Amino acid sequence: MTTTARALAAPRRTALGRLVEDPPGFAAHLPGEPRLRRAADDFSDLFGLAEVDRLLTDRALRRPAFRVIRDGAQVPDASCLHGGLLYPDVADPRKISGLLAQGATLVFQGLQELNGPLAEFGRRLGHDLGRPVNVNAYVTPAGSQGFGDHYDTQDSFIVQIHGSKRWTLKDPALVQPLSHETGRPLPEDDGSGRTLTLESGDCLWLPRGWVHSARSTDTASVHLTISLYEWTGHWAWTRIAARAPGLPGRFPLSTDFFRDRAAAEKDMAALRTELMEWLATADDSALVDLVRAAGAPEFPSPVRHPAGQVLSPEPDEDTEYTVNAHAVLNAETRGDRLVLTLGARGLTLPAAMTPLLADLLTRDRFRPCDLPPAPGTTALLTRLLKEGVITRSHC
Questions:
Q1: CA 228 to chain centre
Q2: Across the chain, where does the E strand assignment appear?
Q3: How far apart are CA 393 and CA 382, in angstroms?
């Protein structure tokens, strides 16, 4: 990869900068302990009470996009769903209003798929940190608690949107738990937990494994939990094991594996030997390609605007475009080709386009007439527009 190509995918860290004080340092070494940033930003552009009502009343919200939690457990479907609609799993705003009045917590799940501002913020934050993100929102009435002590298997940002919430943090029940390591018994409460109250605009970094619980104060609370996909060495190995051609271990285990320990140990010794030999000769570059191919589709691909592209007037030299630089997850030069990774999609361009594309991706907006003259500019813009790397500013 050339230096120029690498720069095409360099993160700007504008989203991360709204959450933490030192974005480059934070991204380089994700902290292993909670960190609180007071008055990090005004996050009202991302979510709020009006959006809560809109989701419930305007969208015919369906499972699993929401849950209602009371006393640490999900309420029965009959208590929060419509009974007579075409889809039986649609949220009933009247029932949910009653549950909120009784102290239940409303949870919106996967808001990066449902809410425009959070979708855009999630794409930018995922690009900043090199990991896809998931966004949930928790709406809790005054003086109420959704969940008791528990831990999560994903690192998260807790962003207080409305009201305030008192959090209790305790040492990890399990250090850096993996995704399947849920539900471990929690240590007995010795009263050593740290308590803090998040006010509107505060942001708490909560690493995975830390035991926590939260209760709203004398005001209702709305907060976002922005979780990072846990891409660990363990995750990479599971992808290698599932996808690598020629990976050993294809031989059948002994028919006495569960009855004869000696036979079982012989099988495991043979497997271990094969794996060690395979790993000793495995090509690191090929493994990188394999793991990237498994992970890239987890990132959202650039948003396309079919109506705006097809039905709008033909663009001209004065048409203004918005640049979605965060859409470019990776860029590599391979011979005379420039290969871009756009989430689940790829885009191959002539390598000669690299300088022009590098110039474009440093801009927020541009008009073709503002660009330096270069052969192939029109073709490049047409392709980038089709893929969603640039969009007409009015779309």
A1: 5
A2: 35-37, 66-70, 73-74, 105-108, 133-140, 156-162, 164-170, 194-199, 203-206, 211-216, 221-228, 321-323, 330-334, 337-342, 345-350, 365-366, 390-392
A3: 15
Distance CA 391, CA 395 (A): 7
Task: Decide: 96 and 105 in contact? Cβ < 8 Å.
Answer: no
Q: Kindly report, residue by residue over 92-110, the tens digit of the pLDDT.
A: 999 999 999 999 999 999 9
Beta strands in 245-355 (DSSP E): 321-323, 330-334, 337-342, 345-350
Give the pLDDT mean for 205-222. 96
The identity of residue 168, as a single letter, is T
Residue 117's SS3 state is helix
Which sequence spans correspond to the domains of the chain? 3-228, 233-295, 306-392
Reference 51, options 108, 135, 110; nearest CA is 108
Cα separation, 134 vs 127, whole angstroms: 13
- As a CATH number, domain 3-228 is 2.60.120.650
CATH number of the domain located at residue range(s) 306-392 in this protein: 3.90.930.40
Across-strand partners of 331? 340
Q: How far is CA 135 from the centre of its chain?
A: 7
Residue 221 CB-density burial (10 A; 0-12 exposed, 13-18 middle, 19+ buried): buried
CA angle 64, 69, 74 (to 5 degrees): 65
| Cβ-contact 150, 214 below 8 angstroms | no
3-class SS of residue 214? strand
pLDDT band at 395 (very low <50, low <70, confident <90, very high): low
Q: What are phi and psi of 99, to 5 degrees?
A: -65, -40
Residue 66 bridge partners (DSSP): 108
Per-residue confidence (pLDDT) for residue 252, from 0 to 100:
92
C-alpha 357/C-alpha 361 separation (Å) is 6
> What rounded mean pLDDT belongs to the chain?
91
Q: How many residues does the chain have?
A: 395
Q: Point out which residues pair with 150 in neighbouring strands.
A: 212
